[in-house]
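Form 12-C: Joint structure prediction
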Amino acid sequence: MIWRPFRGGIKPKEFKEATATKPIVTVPLPPRVILPLQQHLGERANPVVVRDELVEAGQIIGNSAAFISAPVHASISGTVTRVTAEVIEIARRNREGVRELSTGKWENLDKLPADAIRCIARKAGIVGLGGATFPTAVKLTPPAGCWVNTLIINGCECEPYLTADHRLMVEQSAEIVFGAYAMAQALQAVRIIFAVEDNKPDAAKKLAEALTAAQLRPYGAIIRNTTAEVRLVPSRYPQGAEKQLIWSLTGRVVPLGGLPAQVGVLVHNVATAYALAEAIRKAKPLIERVVTVTGPIVNAPGNYLVRLGTPIRELLAYAGGVKEPVKAIILGGPMMGEAQVDDGAPVTKGTSGVLVFGEADLAPVRQTRCIRCARCVEVCPMGLEPLYLARLAEKELWSEAVQAGAAYCLECGSCAYICPAKRPVAELIRRAKVKCQEGGIVDERQAGSQSRTASA
Amino acid sequence: MNGKLEVRAAPHLLDPDSTAKIMYSVLLALIPSALAGVILFGVHALWLMLVSVAAACFTEAGCQLLLRQPVTITDGSAAITGLLLAFNLPPSFPLRYAAFGAFMAIVLGKQLFGGLGENPFNPALIGRVVLAAAFPQEMTTWQALGGVMADAATTATPLGLIKLGQVPALSELLLGNVLGCIGETSVVAILIGGIYLLWRKIIDWRIPVGMLGSVAVLSVLLGADPLVQLSTGGLMLGAFFMATDPVTSPVTKPGRWIFAIGAGAVVVLIRFFGGLPEGVSYSILLMNAVKPILNKATKPRIFGEVRGRA
Ligand code: SF4
Ligand code: SF4
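Section 2 - Result
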C-alpha cells in the first residue's frame, strides 16, 4: 500500500525524547478540582448539582439535552464548593471509589447495537481527546446517506513535545484495539486503519500485536467482518490533521467545507478509542486522561494520568516542580496549544499536554516585514497563501479574507512556524476566521454545500 | 508563581531562520564574487562595493528616519542591494556616481513603494538602470584600474567580442578573466555562493535552473555555444542572485518556473536580436513586472477544492 504525501507540512524538532520512554504515572487525587462545563465543542452543559452537595466521582454534575454536547462528571468525590454557569468546583473528601456508568460492562460487541455504543459514549462524556473535543457520540452518528466504511484510528501525535498518545499506544494497545472495534461496530465500518508516525515504531508494533491477539478474543462478529491494519506514516507535521491523514491513507479528498463522512471515512484519536473501551468494558466515565507534562525547565517531565479538573499548578508540582521561574505555560502542543495567563487553569478533556517554558526558552521575537519568501505558501497543508490572508486580516478586510480561503485554515501554525519574518501569520488568519464566523460571512465556494454541513 | 506569564499566540515553536539570517547568508554567498572582483579589477572595485553598500545603508536609514519608521538596516537587505549594485558596475566606474546609484536604488527601487517586501522591482537593478541612463558613457567603459585584468589587451566585454566574431576561451570565462562588471565575470565565484544558497534552501532552485536552462536551450536552437552564452555577461549573477530575490519573484512554484524561463528567453532575445549586447537586467525587470500576473494565474488549489464546479 502506498502512502501519499500530503501537501506542504513542516518538520520541526520533536523534543519528544524527554518523555517518550516515560511510562504513564497515575497522579494522586488532587484536593480540589475545577470542572468547566464546556470541555467540548457544542452546547455547554448545565450544572445539575448545587453548592454544598456531596458528589461521588463519576457522577454527572453537568448535562445538556442538546445533541451536540457532552455531560461533565465529577472527577473526584467530595463537596461541591462552587457552581456557576461555566464551572463547578469540588473539594475532595477522602473517598477513592468511582461511580460506574449505568450501562453495564460488555465484552462481546455483538450484544451492543450501534445505538447502544453511541449511548455509552454519550453517557461517559467522551469527546475527541486529540484536542478537537468534538462529542464522540455525535461523530459516531454519520449524516444520513453517508456510509462510513473506513475508520482511521489516529495515533500520529505529530505535535512536537507530546508523547501521551505514544505511551497510551505502548501501554494500552489492547484497550485501544477494543475501542476501535467498538467504533467500527457503531459505524458498520469494514476497515480499520491505525495510523502511527514512523517515529513511534514501538507503538505500531504493540498495536499490531494487540490486533493479532484480538482475533482470539470474544469480541464478536465485528472482528471477522472488518479488516484491520497498522500503517506507519512518515513523521511530518501536521500528518495527524484529519483531511491530510485521510488523503495519505486512502487517497480520498474531503471536499471543501465538507465532512470526512462524505467520503466514507471517520478519524478518531487513539485516546478516544481508549476512553470508549474503558466505558464499555469497565463502565468508566471520562474523568481522567493522560497528559504529557514537559518543557526544558520541568524537573520530572513525563506522562501523567490525571483527573480532569486538576489545576495545572498541582500537576506541575507533582511533576517535580520547575528548575527556574516559569515564563510561559502552554496547554496542548507547541504548534496549536494555548498560552495561559497563570497556572490556575485545570486539565480538561482536551488537554493533551502541559508545556512549561522558562526565560531562556522564550527568546524575544524580532518581527520584520514580509519578504515574500513564500515559505508559508510552500508549507500550508491546505494550499492557502497565508501571506495574503494575513495581510487582508491586518487590514481587517474580513470578507475578502474569506473569499481568499481563510475559512479553510486548519490553524495548524505551519505558516507562522516557518516564517523568517516571524510574522504571526496563523494568528492573523485565525482572527479572520473567527470574525467571519461571528459575522456569518461564508465563502462563495462553500455556499452550495451549506445545507449539507449544517445538518452534520 | 512569581512574575506574569507571557501569553503569545500559537505556534510557540518557530523555525530558527529569520529575515536577518537569510539576508546575512546572501551577503556571505556574495563574498566569493566580491573577492574575485577585487582580485580581477583591483582595489577600486573594493571601494565601489564599500561606497555602494554604505550609501545604500545610509539612504535606507535616512528614509526610515524621515518617515518616522523603525530603522532596519541591521536586517542586511539594504547592504545586499548596495553590494549587488556595485557588482553590476564597470571596474572603473566613479565612486560618487556609484553612491548616487545606491541612493536611487533605495529611494526609487524600495522606499518609494513602502520598503522591504513592497517593492515590485529589484532595487539593485533599478539603481543600475538609473545609472545606465544617467551615465551611458561610464557605464560602458571597460577598463580595469588594477588587479589581474589591469593589462588586458582589449577594452571589450566577451559579449561585445562575440558580436565582433571573437569567442573568448571558456576557461577564462569561468574564472572571470574577462572584462565586465566587477561581480559578474567570475562564474566559479558566483557558483560557490549560489550553491551555498541552494543548499541553505534560501533561493529556490527553480529560478536559476529555469533561467539558465532556457538560455541554454534557446542558444542551441539559435546555433550558439550554450556554455559561452551561460558564462558571459550578467547571466550567472542575475540567475543566482537577482532573479531569486524573494520579494520580486512569484510566490508559487509554477509561477517561478514561468518567471525563470521567461527571464531566460528575454535574455536570449535581447542578446541575439536586440540592439544591446546584454539584457539580463532588463529581462529580470520585465519579469518582475509580470510577477503579479503570474501569482494570480498560478494560485495554488485549495486542498479539497473542486474548480469549475457549477
Ligand atoms: S495555519 Fe492555516 S494558513 Fe497557516 S499553514 Fe496551517 S492551514 Fe495554512
Ligand atoms: S513566510 Fe513570512 S515572510 Fe515569507 S512570504 Fe510568508 S509571511 Fe512573508
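Section 3 - Comments
Residues A 370-376, 386-387, 418-421, 423, 425 surround iron/sulfur cluster (ligand 2) (CB under 6 Å). Chain B touches chain A through 46 residues (CB under 8 Å).
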